[in-house]
Each structure stands twice: as C-alpha cells, then as structure tokens.
Amino acid sequence: MHGGAVDASDARLISAIAGGDRRAFEVLYRSYFPRLTRFLHCMTRNVQLIEEIVNDTMLVVWQKAFSFDGTCKPSTWIFAIAYRKACKAIKGLDEPVD
To answer: Rounded to 10 degrees, what is the CA torsion of 15, 6, 76, 59?
Structure first.
C-alpha cells in the first residue's frame, strides 16, 4: 500500500470509529501502536510513559473521531494528538509534587 491508499483506509477507519465501530478502532490502534511508540521514544525514553501516552492518544481518537475533517492526513492528526499528550506528560514529570 502506498501513502494515499493508507491515508484513505485510515480515514475510513476514523469515520467508522466516529460511528462507534470498535473493530475499526482495534485495527487503527494496532496499526498506530508501533509507529506512535517509536515516535514517542524519541521524545521520552520512559517505556511506561510511552504506553500511557499511546493509550491517552487513542482514547482521544476514539472520543473525537467525529471531529476529524480530512483537512490533514489521518496520521498527521493522530501524531499531533500524541505530540500534545507527550508534551503535557513530560511537563507533568518536571513539576514538583506537593
């Protein structure tokens, strides 16, 4: 599969997820888990944190799939969510705990 076909396939999955399709979510999750893990490993070397961020990211995908409007590639949308989640998590690690 080339980029365009993958993007179209991912967009269809996101559309199905917006309709509550758990199977589509599972397929998308499996497809993105290794890619997100590699991406997040560059930002934080904390394995537990990476898994938490991936799960938080995919939860947002599940909850906000209806808001994906196709103005960017599905991967761009998902990685942007992961990036924001990672920044928040990393910032959280730096803050002193009361």
So the answer is: 50
Residue environment code for 46-65, b if the CB has 16+ CB neighbours within 10 A, otherwise e: eeebbeebbebbbebbbeeb
Phi then psi for residue 75, to 5 deg, are -65, -40
Which of 9, 4, 91 has the alpha carbon at shortest distance from 44? 91
- Residue pair 38/58 in contact (Cβ under 8 Å)? The answer is no
Are the beta carbons of 10 and 74 closer than 8 angstroms? Answer: yes
Query: Could you report the per-residue pLDDT of 53-75, keeping only the tens digit for each?
Result: 999 999 999 999 999 999 999 99
Q: Return d(Cα 23, Cα 60) in angstroms, integer.
A: 16
Cα–Cα distance, 10 to 15 (Å, whole number): 9
Return the amino acid letter for 3.
G
Predicted structure pTM score: 0.89
Rounded CA gap, 84 and 39, in Å? 12
